[in-house]
Write a structure and sequence with these properties.
Helix content is 27%, strand content 21%. The protein is of the alpha+beta class.
Length: 190
């Protein structure tokens, strides 16, 4: 007896493929804005945490070591610079001149920000550094670290508010409008 082998065709027709591709494209277009929002929120949260760590590290080191500690922007991780976006250094400032001298100990470096973010420090007396005394206080440098996303909206912008006593608090959305406010109640912008 001979057996007949039957072959069946399995696969998709062109119409089935086009419908599947259209459905995937529709789902992707719905999910993409939500994913983009998630990524922006994640990056800004990581940046806020980095600067919160830098500020707390400098303050705690000043208290525990009994030295003046300076936090300043740095592009080369060796000396103070101009742009906070390029990163920062923390060092023991033996002569209190807010400049990293060769004999002063470099305690920590902080990496640069994400590509589309801005970081700025606005403070009383308009200084581009922050110094902590042995008791954890600043040298009358109450101010705000502003961390912003280069976007058309201000909803992702955050701030770290530093008081003269060295206390650090995160900005919040006080009035529930979807935007964080600074210490004066204004929407955060850089």
């Amino acid at each position: 007896m001979k057996k007949f082998i039957r072959f069946t065709k399995s696969g998709f027709s062109l119409l089935e493929l086009l419908v599947t591709i259209a459905m995937v494209a529709a789902l992707f277009s719905i999910a993409m804005p939500s994913y983009d929002d998630f990524i922006k929120r994640y990056k800004i949260k990581a940046e806020v945490n980095k600067w919160l760590l830098a500020l707390n590290f400098a303050r705690q080191t000043a208290i525990t070591s009994g030295n003046i500690i300076t936090l300043c922007p740095s592009s080369n991780k060796l000396s103070c610079g101009a742009s906070w976006r390029e990163g920062a250094i923390v060092f023991v400032d033996l002569n209190k001149n807010h400049i990293k001298d060769p004999n002063e100990i470099l305690l920590h470096t902080f990496d640069s920000s994400f590509a589309n973010q801005q970081v700025s420090w606005r403070a009383f007396q308009n200084r581009n550094y922050l110094q902590f005394q042995q008791n954890g206080f600043t040298w009358a440098q109450n101010g705000t670290f502003r961390i912003c996303v280069a976007a058309s909206t201000l909803q992702y912008n955050r701030a770290l508010i530093v008081t003269r006593s060295g206390r650090i608090r995160l900005s919040t959305d006080v009035n529930g409008d979807g935007f964080h406010q600074d210490s004066k109640g204004a929407k955060i912008s850089c």
